[in-house]
# Entry
Amino acid sequence: MPDKHLSSQFDSELNSVSARVMEMGGLVESEIRQAVYALSHFSLEAVEAVASIETRVNALEVEIDGELSSIIARRQPTARDLRLLLAFSKATANLERMGDEANKMARMVRSIIEGGAPRSLPSSDLRVAAELASGLLRKALDAFARLDVKMAVSILKEDDLIDQEFDGFVRKLVTYMMEDPRTISPSLDLLFLAKAIERIGDHSKNMAELVIYLVKGKDVRHTALDEIESAVL
# Structure
């Protein structure tokens, strides 16, 4: 991913970190898929798989942070290279938090299964949002690897779809709870699940903003989408 440097060793180190970030992204993507499967099939086996992957994700975060600290200490990078290294660090942090949200989803599914919650609750509605979030992460990783600004902007647009799914799902859950108070406890579990899915979309959006920052040198956080489009496309 990084451009070539005069120091081939430095270039190799940057490529190594980039590969590790992509590896971590692949693990988080797998973690989310398992969490979605657990939700779709009420599978305790998938819940356990999420926990196992989460351990590997956390270990990889620590390793990448160590590599980045070592590179910064030894290389004393220029402003341009420092921006790249900081982007790696922020991407890693966002990936780790996405893994946390997937793990939270798995814990909520376990709670629903063990609580014997009625299957009539609209858990299937969450799959649409969960699949959108998983696809958004995949695109974010691709945009980050390719430094693709157009794809990054498209991710910012798609995150709004997940937010709309979340809002609609919350309204539906409120209706269920009002009609049958016995559904309140499992409905709250589903609400936390939905919020975790929304947060995965938010972290993918953060990674897309990092791509724009890397390529254009513009910090577009907290900026309206139309302003971003006019500034970077």
Observations:
- Residues 8-232 form a domain with the Methane Monooxygenase Hydroxylase; Chain G, domain 1 fold (CATH 1.20.58.220).
